[in-house]
Amino acid sequence: MHNVKDLNDYTSPFTKISQEQYSSINYHHSEYERRGSFVAACSAFRKIDVDQYNEDNYKEDECGESQSPPSIEALKTVLRNAPISSRNQMVKDAALNVVMQVLLSMKSSQIEEAVNALDRDHLDILMKYIYRGFETPSEGSSGQLLAWHEKVHAVAGVGCIVRVLTDKKRV
User: What is the tens place of the pLDDT at every residue in 121-139?
Assistant: First the structure.
């Protein structure tokens, strides 16, 4: 063990340390020696089991067959509350933004399931929103909307497109 006089002999005259500073340094040094090392003292992060997030072990929450995913329920809710008869364009634009967020947030593997869960009237409204989304494309939206259009056309047929194009009520 060194004392303050010995340490001051090895330092420059401008960095003389006091007995209080020496005691503090000595205390911290002994704490690290007691714990083994600084890394061992900071091992709280090791309490998380990172192996549970490995792709081989990870399993998505499976929904029951009677329960549809939240994104499909969100789509049904948005289509059910579509402001078709509203004359306020700001309300229609806000509804379009919500529908586009729901459509673009869905995975392509969920599109067919979502379309099959809708009835004819909701498919017509969805097709209206798809065409409206084509009017104001954003980056990556056109490809996603084409996938939606394909699935809706496969389920609802050409009649859906004709009904949407000839209907005077717009979304």
Answer: 999 999 999 999 999 988 8
CB count within 10 Å of CB 100 equals 20
Model confidence at 45: pLDDT above 70: no
**What CA–CA distance (Å, rounded) separates 165 from 74?**
25
Q: What are phi and psi of 45, to 5 degrees?
A: -70, -15
Burial 127-143 (b: 16+ CB within 10 A, else e): bbbbbbbeeeeeeeeee
List domains and CATH numbers for the chain: 4-53 (no CATH), 70-166 (1.25.40.190)
- Torsion over CA: 147, 148, 150, 151 (sign): positive
d(CA 45, CA 166): 62
Q: By the 8 A CB rule, do 101 and 133 touch?
A: no
The encoded tokens of residue 154 equal 């496969």
